[in-house]
Amino acid sequence: MAPLRYLSGFGSEFASEDPRCPGSLPKGQNTPQKCPYGLYAEQLSGSAFTAPRTHNRRTWLYRILPSAVHTPFSPMEQPYLTHNWKSSDPNPNQMRWHPFSIPHINKEKVDWVQGLHTICGAGDPCARHGISVYAYMCNTSMVDTCMYTADGDFLIVPEKGTLHITTEFGKMDVFNNEICVIQQGMRFSVEVDGESRGYVLEVFDGHFELPCLGPIGANGLANPRDFLTPVAWYEDRRVPHGGYTVISKYQGKLFQAHQDQSPFNVVAWHGNYVPYKYNLENFVVVNSVSFDHMDPSIFTVLTCQSVKPGVAIADFVIFPPRWSVQTNTFRPPYYHRNCMSEFMGLIKGSYEAKEEGFRPGGATLHSMMTPHGPDAVCFEGASNAELKPQRIAEGTMAFMFESSLSMALTEWGQKTCECVDAEYYKCWLPLKSHFNPDWKPE
Ligand SMILES: [Fe+2]
Fold first, then answer.
1. Which reactions appear under catalytic activity for this entry (predicted)?
2. Distance separating alpha carbons of residues 200 and 202, to the nearest angstrom
């Protein structure tokens, strides 16, 4: 199959028509009395109508039938998707999970929505404040089913398997080492090629944006041109007798409605509220070229800001392959206690601060003020290493969801999931004192 086409840019005003229907975008206005090709006009708002222009997000969709044509929503069972943070007691421990188990297709068919498991989170979608972190483990495609979240924006990080995602805006293929963002309200359906696994961050407060670069200047980190948005694609497909299911994630629970047509019936659209993907290989790494460490904020790809200046509801941060050149410096991450919560996952390779135990498809959580840092093996090695320029993290991509909110673990995250690594704390126990009261400078 030919690779998909995309539009390039971040936060841009895009316009796209399915080439089968040239002229399907109304000229010079949004809601003509009759739209070209007999389409319906529908606006999808991603911000308050009156939001300042810098934050105003909306898209006009020109579709075969409006989204309103469906039966009433009814509750749907999905026991692993929850925002019930009170279901288990608070737990400040360092947490680590072995790679999350993917169900075997011969035992059980699980699609992307059924495979969503909430690990931890904070806040409340009703108040539009908070986040939720999920793992997904699935083995089969969603068939005649789509979902949307009314609660927030999904940032999806595949670790195993490509995601073929159809959205109302068109199609995206999201490969290993790529991420995608599907914002509040956007309907999408996920096809997979086989066993698939990855991570999802949902933010309830607002949308992801590129971090300000300050003195770095106009270029660097994630550049806007590397974000890719689908081009318009439609199907005029009837699925009689309510054969198509629309799943709504609403106030932390799933609901389903049925309709007789595919929701991917948008022939043309224009606007700045869109799904997008990004290849992490395109991230321009910035770091100290003299001595010491910059803080990991230099690795921020996307941020969802709170109302407090510089404080993120959640940052999406990566640790890409790069040169490490600092002189007289302990080069791995320093020991720290953070006023933020840090959830980490591994897309491929092995993470430099812990060569063992933290594996692709697994995860760690270091909660607020919970101390952590390199394990004993890493500390001894890095303290005695020859400090020549060195490629680090080659073939590796670790990431972090860092939040100013104090996240709580779900019952599944800390108990039911068989992948919890109860031995994690032991990686620091061999650290020994090097203190020498008679030490003299050389
Ligand atoms: Fe950390």
1. homogentisate + O2 = 4-maleylacetoacetate + H(+)
2. 6
